[in-house]
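Entry type: protein chain
Record version: 2
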Amino acid sequence: MSRILHIEASPRADRSWSSKAAGNFLTQLKEHLTELEIDHFNIWTAILPSFDGAAIEAKYAKLSGTPLTDAQSRAWKLIGHYVARLDAADAILISTPMWNLGVPYRLKHLFDLVTQPGLSFSFNPATGYTPLLSARPTAVLMATSGDFTEGPSYGRTDLATPYLSTALAFIGLKDAAIVHVSPTIGQPEAMEAGVRRTEAELQRLPASFAGRLA
């Protein structure tokens, strides 16, 4: 049995374009993998711990090789739970909107929690940074009001795509497929073309995931 972790980063529930695309993707993936287990992680209903106080001091203690205090150990163990949940998945799916050219703050919060020394990456002054998670099928379905598939939209730069690609690769989830679900507003012709483009991607991607997970 394969497990996919679906990180849902839109708070709009049934009105969310990215969540609907994720539902479509997962339905098609289950047609290829009938025993697929879905670990659904809605970051808007989850209680994400603050990354401050004992947690951030634990990070610097880890980087410097300093023993952790009891409070730091508790905070570090809690953060480790999120990294372990990520690493337990055979595949990763993130569905998210673009907010203000970047990602929602709750998704950035999650990345700040799971990007930790000794848990998801290591550092050596001689060799630099090394990811600690193994590569696995990873995809991001990102809804955007404008069409960024061929560059800036009305002069606006897409900052979310390079951030997500880089942040995922940094911890080992390299070569993530990022599918733009767009445009979600605008002229009907442009929106219809966007729907057709997204549907074509969502026909191809589940088969690709299934082939790697089988």
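Comment: Helices lie at 17-32, 54-64, 70-87, 105-114, 160-170, 188-213.
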